[in-house]
Every structure is written in C-alpha cells, then in structure tokens.
Amino acid sequence: MSKRKKAIERFRQNPKNVRFSEIETLLLGLGFKIRQKGTSHAYFTLGSHIIGVPVRKPFVKQKYVELMLQELDLLFAEDEED
Hints:
- This protein is of the alpha+beta class.
- The chain has a single domain, classed as Hypothetical protein (Metal Transport, Frataxin, Chain A), CATH 3.30.920.
- Helix content is 50%, strand content 18%.
- The chain contains three helices and three strands, in the order H-H-E-E-E-H.
- A three-stranded antiparallel β-sheet has the order 1-2-3.
- Strand 1 and strand 2 (41-46) form a beta hairpin.
- The two termini are 22 Å apart.
C-alpha cells in the first residue's frame, strides 16, 4: 500500500487527530495546487475539485477532514470511470 493510501486510511480511522501539514502534504502529493495560503483557510484545487481547509493548530476539525475525504472519494471515482 502506498504512503498516500496509508495516510488516507489513517485519516478515516481517526479524523480528530489530523494536522494541517499532513493534509497539505497529501493533497500536494496528489497533484492539487494550493491557493490563498496565509489567510485563515487554504484552498486546494485540482481541475473542478476544490477543497477548503482552515489552517488550525494543532489539529483540523473533524468535519473538515471528513469533507476532504468525501471530495477525494469523488475524485478517485472519476479516475476509475476514465
């Protein structure tokens, strides 16, 4: 299993303990571009997929991690259709 898949599974198992830096590393590794970093939120874009994540320390709220995982599921579903 790749590092990215392991990270996604770890996020699914424990969405309360995910740091912004871990999300940033994962999404940039998947090809997302970061937009508007330096404000309270960072936006990651890949085509029509946009994921907004608040920059919180030490951990990102569980709801935002779950929303990110849902968007990644949609992205992976589209990739499988192609």
